[in-house]
């Protein structure tokens, strides 16, 4: 069996040490695709099982998918839900990028339903977990766009885990018409409005796919299926399907609302969660509040504190612009993070002093940061402060994309030099100093 380490460094050199960066023991191959292979791994320090997704930089760059990989990382790091596969860390070498993720011991949901349809109660349990996680993603501006049983995994407790956010869209990809336009998804699960090629609502597309998944769970086969692809698309476009005779009346009614070919009248996530069929034995999921990649926990003083995951986020492993040796990423803001021994209050006071000297206005002040605007509103800058340890804090400066050149010049040449005394010199800036 060839390990990821052997493949990366050469079997002869690495055969005696099948470890990735000395942190993870890499084991058997779990699956593979066109651009990546997934291995079982073990955290050397804790013994915890993990899944390690090894992505070939050469293949990704050749296929023009570098932006997709960076977006997948950006998306996964902001999601912390019990029914979403968690991303622990990203590591990179010259030729590969490694996603270190939560290991789903139970495998794919697809392999279970392929052996036979589920009972209505079991189908409901998995559908509840699916919709709860999808609603969580939507509330954070993330739309999966490729939901199907193959992308739904099961953990050791047989609970569902949504995975594979490679085709996901985020809020800033929405066009001026308020819709997404990229054609994507798996044929049998794709929504009719995507086939129409007129733009679509990412949330409603995911709901359609959830409806197809629920049908597959209770029926054991697809609602729209044909050996001829165009014939199948016609059925999808018209919303033509029949429920199996063993489904209950409430479930049939529910399925027709989920698989409504008209996205305007299709049931919403909120309506789903209030439906009588869905509500039976429903248990609310407990999850962390994650804002823009940070697991936020309020301290007594109202400051934001960082956990171990966030320390990883500040490491070079999460510097997405460097994964492919590029100078930028696909986000609409640019920012820098610094470590300081100063108190959050002192940092904000100093920023306010410098801003006043440079005729920059503080338009909003909170315990965790500031919002600043340039003259004539030519740029907007955000300062966020997070508690790292009892002695250290991290402050992040981000520029909104209004007049980028003007904002960058004011920050780089006028504001930043005057704030260097705030930066902890032993570690200097964590990123971008």
UniProtKB/TrEMBL annotation:
Manganese is among the record's keywords: yes
Molecular function terms, GO-annotated: ATP binding; protein serine/threonine kinase activity
One record GO biological process: signal transduction
NAF domain span: 301-325
Keywords attached to this entry: ATP-binding, Kinase, Manganese, Membrane, Nucleotide-binding, Serine/threonine-protein kinase, Transferase, Transmembrane, Transmembrane helix
Family (UniProt): Belongs to the protein kinase superfamily. CAMK Ser/Thr protein kinase family. SNF1 subfamily.
Record PANTHER family: CALCIUM/CALMODULIN-DEPENDENT PROTEIN KINASE KINASE-RELATED, CBL-INTERACTING SERINE_THREONINE-PROTEIN KINASE 14
Descriptive protein name: non-specific serine/threonine protein kinase
